Amino acid sequence: MKLKKLSLEQKNRYYGLYFILPWFAGFCFLFLTPLLSSLRFSLSNLQVNDEGFTLKYIGLANFREALFSHESYVRTLTESVMNIVLNTPLILIFSLFFAVLLNQKFHGRVLARAIFFLPVILASGIIASIENGDLMQSVVRSASDSTGGGLSVIKNLELTTLLIESGLSPTVVQYLTGAVSRIYEIVSQSGVQILIFLAGLQSISPSLYEAAKIEGSTGYEAFWKITFPMIGPLILTNLVYTIIDSFISDQTSRMVVDTAFKSFNFGLSAAMSWMYFAIIALLLWVTTALISRKVFYQD
Amino acid sequence: MKTETAAMPHRSKKEQLNRLASAAYWVEFSKKWLWVIARFVLVFGISFVILYPILLKLSIAFKSMDDLYDSTVIWVPQAFTLENFRLVFKAMNYPAVLRNTMLLSSAVMVLQTIICVLAGYGFARIKFKGSGLLFAAVIFTILVPSQTIMIPLYLHFKNFDLFGLIELFTGKPANLINTYWPFIISSMLGMGVKTGLYVYIFRQFFKGIPREIEEAAYVDGAGYFTTFARVILPNAIPSMVTVMLFSFVWQWNDSFFTNMYLNEPKVMSSMMSSAGYGIATYMTGGGQAANSLVQDPFFMSMMMNTSVLMAILPLIILYVFVQRHFVESVERSGLVG
Q: What range does the record give for the signal peptide (chain B) (predicted)?
């Protein structure tokens, strides 16, 4: 009876609910329930047996164990968070820079774009983790270094001394040269970000640049006064994406998985991941709150 | 026709010479070319950084045992050999793994796209008290790392039951670990790899489609679901292509869920992580002579490189064909608002 009173438009609004239904079922059964039970597991001692598992409530003991008696959790956690804090600005600047570069017209642009988006399909944690400890690759690398006159080793040292002599503080220099040595890591994490920035750049109306050019602005000014504000919302999107993407395959996540499936300490693992999640959430909240105040929205 | 050419000033020879003599011209000229060179160096350099691991793997994969210990061989092997590929092909049961991965990724891709396009449309159009909260839930699923819900999910699929129905018929809950059902079920219910992101993409896209289009369809007598199928969906094809590309690739590369749900290396990503072990068992099964090879770290590393290369090779081949659509579809998908 009540439905009769609604207008067509109002009814259609509720029809939308049918579309969400499958997703909502998944959200309840495969997300919300696991999330709550994960919280419960983190507060208990979980024993797996033949008929499933038994839980014994032990309070905050798991959290205490992770923080105070686990041999490497705190160290790994700080390292992971530091990595995120250090890499995220680099990835954002790098991807914006190269998106601007790839947006210009030059010969071989199609090829360059194709290569730059390769990390989107190749950058999965497993390939990277295999690559890190690979013997053969390091042999070839060192061999080509020695035949090439050890260029790659010297280059970084020279850069460091040059920068320090020019009066920069050693911390900044370390950060920059560290970025140069980690270039592959940064490149392989910024595929999607470049893609998003590039799409954003192409949606900026060319008439803005035209007007600016007539008014006599240089390319540099046009970047800071037009490109940068227009792409602001996407910087925020990419920031969030970079942060949540980086915890998929880092040290702490690996430790969480290992604790669960190698040492079968499910409660400890749940506690570890909850603390990690809390820190990431805090980080995300702070950064988005800081940046979204500066972001310019056109409408 | 082209009228722009008429606007170009025709300079006389003298004017041109004057122009060449001015300093400003040369400053502009050198500025332009310096930028072109700098850009070339940057793009080339980073392209090299990206391609370097693949080239390295290619070089290693074609090497023979003799080349491994030949110090004059660095990049180009002296004796090209396909022996490594043949070995990995057999040891990893490559055709079966490839077929499994293809089927799994395609199934997940189709299911995820369907569910997410429905959910995205729903989220773009519903408007009542609490609908904002519902969409916040989508964002929340993106933000929570999968490690947090990994253990309950694992136990859930290990003792899978649908309101006690399965236990009623078979006497005990079904164990879905080491089957493909966890992937199918979670993508069917929109909780697969990065599904929240796809819902977000579709929602942004459908927000950009004016309501007038739908209203016109209603006036013409189409119902709600007809309108969606006949009017809205055809418009959404670019963003569907984006989501399909991403979900295929990410499912292919996903090692987290595959390692969790599958005990045996049935698909590419879990094959890669256990390649060393697989090859070692295959080789030692072959006889005593192979044993010394397995203990040789260089040899094992060569095998690892070859198997990683073979795992990503199908993706790269697919990528060559669809890479054009990557940027184009992201542009048109409304991901960027």
A: none
